Fold these 4 entries.
Entry 1:
Amino acid sequence: MYGLDKAAVATRVLTMNYGVRVYPLWRSGVDPKKRKTSDGRIYKFSCLATRGREVAPDEPCSGTYYPIYPDQTHIVFNVYYTRNDFAKYCNESGMKLLGTLRINTPDTHFGLNRQIEFSLTFAKMEIKATAKNKRNGKTYDETTFELDI
């Protein structure tokens, strides 16, 4: 209980790297050819919070992401964690899926120009994931992942 008292413990140090799976365009000379998908993209790990980082309770660790297709009506954020400080791909050894957050993005009239801020917040005994439309400030959805690491 002492560790959960915000007055007694103001920060915590992360023991894992946390991030989401992204699907950028594959780049010749940069990305391994064997990882190129049939539609010219590649699955990668986008780190939001690094192992060893000191975070305050409820301090968000965020990144900005965009839809892949202009008519896309939802985005799936697969959240991963690993001890590997140099992780690049979500299927590497030691990489584990923490959970998934699926959000609806019905504002397709903006095409690819729809910034989504995805945040992980490290609370008492859980990690909270939130997605927010940066254009209008609307929070799309949020979910909580129980820590059992």
Note: The mean pLDDT is 87.
Entry 2:
Amino acid sequence: MDAPFVRNELGFDERRDLFCNWDEARLMEADGTMAVAAHSHWHHAVFAKPEYTGFHAPGHRSRTFDRVDFAVPWGLPAFAQRPALLRRAFVPDPQLVDAIRALVPQDKASAYAFFQDSGKVRELEVLVEAFAATPSGLGKPESDADRTARMTRELSACAATLADELGHPVRSLCWPWGAYCDEARDIARAQGFSVFFATTMGPNPPGSAAHVHRFKAKDKPASWLLLRLFLYSRPWLARLYAKMRL
């Protein structure tokens, strides 16, 4: 728990966090002190636009939730990313993906060796630059229908898995990174979710189920928690305090 980084045999650190399992989740609920809420099925990001910085290559991984809702090959440009339930995705050109797979080895050790060779990296840069110069560019935004289908898959799989594993429907959803759009919320409601947690701070008076504020629990004394509960249980004071913390 306190040492999530594991040394890869190739010489770099990868983050591999531990998580509770379904038996533990069921036991916590059965004890009556905890309730399990949803947090999407995969906690994915999506590519946001064709701008990129570097390439996807084996190396140090510092974040737990850094997966993209795309079959990312080694060598794909590292396109800008956004939370998957926030907006439309940018979809790389399939021909670009095929060309990258043909150039860059796809097993981790060989891909790592590829990126240690500056000449090979330059070949990849030239390949991507050639695609970027064509009329179709490096890809295109997904269609409205594809966006709706993607968000529906994510949220329906989340609801179904929780109901199957816990034995009851789950009504609360905590948005990944606190980010969502109106369409995602409508889809979530259709899947049975009715309470939605964001990451912004503030009060939660009656009628706040569509955007529930929250604050981080920290390794602080009980007095710290009691003070926050005092602040956030008073709407006018909570709004003032939240503004001060921005």
Note: The chain has a mean pLDDT of 93.
Entry 3:
Amino acid sequence: MSRAGIYLDNAASTPVDPRVIEVMADALARHGANPTAAHDPGERAADAVARAREPVAAAIGAAPDDLIWTSGASEANNLAIQGVAAAFGRQPGHMITLCTEHPAVLGPMAALEAQGWSITRLPVDANGRCEPETLAAALRPDTRLVSVMQVNNETGVCQDLAAIGEALRAHPAAFHVDAAQGAGKLPLDVEAIGADLVSLSSHKLHGPKGIGALYVRRRPAPHLAAVWHGGGQERGLRPGTPATHQILGMGKAYALAAEHAPAENRRIAALRDRLWQRLAAVGNLVRNGGPEHVAPGLLNVSVGGVHADALHYACAAGEPALAVSRGSACAAGSAASSYVLRAMGREPALAAASLRLSLGRFTSAADVDTAGRVIAAHIERLRAMAPMDAPADAVVA
């Protein structure tokens, strides 16, 4: 980073692994042909794309041909949600999701709601989890889709997908999982949970931006129609020339994750807990999300007694500069407090005064120790300068 800063925003995007860059550079040099072209260079490119599907599919227990390449998980979410709606034509039905989902899920559902669809947004508890029984009770005969994320992008809270999938087995609704934050890092088996549609990301896993995938079950296939037209690529569901170098980069990123994930998760979780212990010492901090249900790389804390904007400015402008966030990068332009944290019962002021600290493959112990010291110093300085009243309901891990 510039200014010798420390990067703690891996939930927004991860630095690309040098080994991925090497694969992509080689692909740009060797595979300039269109992978759909019927000649030798095109077929070589197509073979490379086919091989790249294998580690991505293996990460979720799927077959390589079950994947539809997209420009990222946000597009995959849109294709899943709008594609199901398109399959039912002019017969609006019902969809279920959680009120804490990513904007790439809540947005298309809101658009469908304006077109006559009925949308149920289920609440979560203080730890950010939705009980499977609550979801099962919300099912209706005309429920067409249930969309639940694997790992929340703000808090790292993991939903019980196996139990949710079991609640849906006797219902014809399609089960969609936004796995952008978890796939390749945490176990996910589409057969075990009964998922019909799964959105995957590359740049959350030290791969390139601009590429993702949607798993689409083949048997039994969900009701899913194309929402874009003009090409026959990707089973007719997503037209456009495949971006060979990005696809190969995503494949390499997933291959590396499969090789390193268990040990990497243990190391990152230990660093995350070390960071929390350093921050908790300043007092009046709330750890958002029950630690037993949070993915290894995420730590979301609300800081009592400080002004949210001042804290974030101090982190960004201090020395060393800290790359942290309030929550979803897709909502970074909003001055409002986090809707995810408010749904978990945080007061608006405390929900606004939050830091999302996300660690990754290249986060070191020195990074964590320095960041912990610097953030704690910022908090103590700001409290001394302009103390604010805030509830002292710190949650200790």
Note: The chain has a mean pLDDT of 93.
Entry 4:
Amino acid sequence: MTQTFSGVESRDWGGHAKGSPEYRRVLLALACAGVATFAQLYSPQGILPEISDSLRVGADQSALLISVATLGLAAAVLPWSVVADRIGRLPAMRYSLIAATVFGLAVTLCPNFTGLLVLRALEGAALGGLPAIAMTYLQEEIAPSHTAVAAGTYISGTTVGGLLGRLVAAPVTGWIDWRWGVGVVVALSASAAAAFMVLTPRPRGFVRTARADRRPLSRVLWLNLRSPAMLALYLQGFLLMGGFVTVYNYLSFRLKAPPFLLPSSLIAFLFLAYLAGTWSSRRAGAIAGTRGRLPVLLTAIVIMIVGVLITLVDSLPVIIVGLVILTVGFFGAHSIASGWSAARATVGRAQAASMYNLFYYGGSSVVGWAAGLVFTRYGWDATALVVVALAVVAGACAATALRSPRRS
């Protein structure tokens, strides 16, 4: 027997089987956690034009409210993974959600743009506990044969959260103002966080590493970064997420301008495309279980590229179709790459999964902001081609480094 966080389990624990009550509770709980995290993280994205007007800042500056939050998240994932190794996955995720709710409420009360940036960075850092730990938690609590599907279910929860955050914030902003819009999303996120805390069963797979057996963090990170396969997976997160958040950051500015001239209350409904990602993330995990992860990942990247190219057409119905296709491809790819990074790691699984999230949200922050400079100066067509180029590089890295006879 080996002492765990609960104090009773052994290393022979095989994970909750698909269909068991505990399996369903874990998946539902993590779906709620995904909602709580990503509703808060992205709630300002659909109302960036209103924030820009209210605070008298440019499009690229207002987008910093997304970038600093994701940068804070990226910076925090490794520290959260270390905390989770010490106190357990579940307690760390609970503390993460509580802290994020406090900072989220503070955002709604801050009177100036600089203060908002600081609070959004802190909110992102608090939210980092969920993506830093969730995949490792699934690997420990779910039977190995079902982790790809479970990972897809968690990712589908994140898409619902991202959708709700945008859909709720925009109409409330139209009726009152953007601070109330963000505040209502924080309240909804707090409710989802409470559901997560109630639903999660007692952890059975966490084994606290003995102090004498702990590798230095720098050594664990280096062992993962020197692996071409792990580095390729991390680059999937950086490049694909960078491109994806670029589209959603600046499409609203494009559609508010001629020839579309759409109000934000209507633009917010474009985020319903996230429902396609809810479906594709889970579907990609299911297909990967029988066909292998690499073919699904490459197919999803191609789908994403097709979707971006379609948005070049100056027709609102066509742009909507392109956005849906882009979203299907992105969340399918993200579902595979994020779950694969935890499954493929041979050392420091929690830190390996956190490194994926560091690259993922680093891409959101760096590329999401830098692409705004392209959009401001050269317009949508150049921005879309940047996104395509990022996806092509991601696909080339995957095809080169991830070819392996094993499917895991």
Note: The two ends are 28 Å apart (CA to CA).
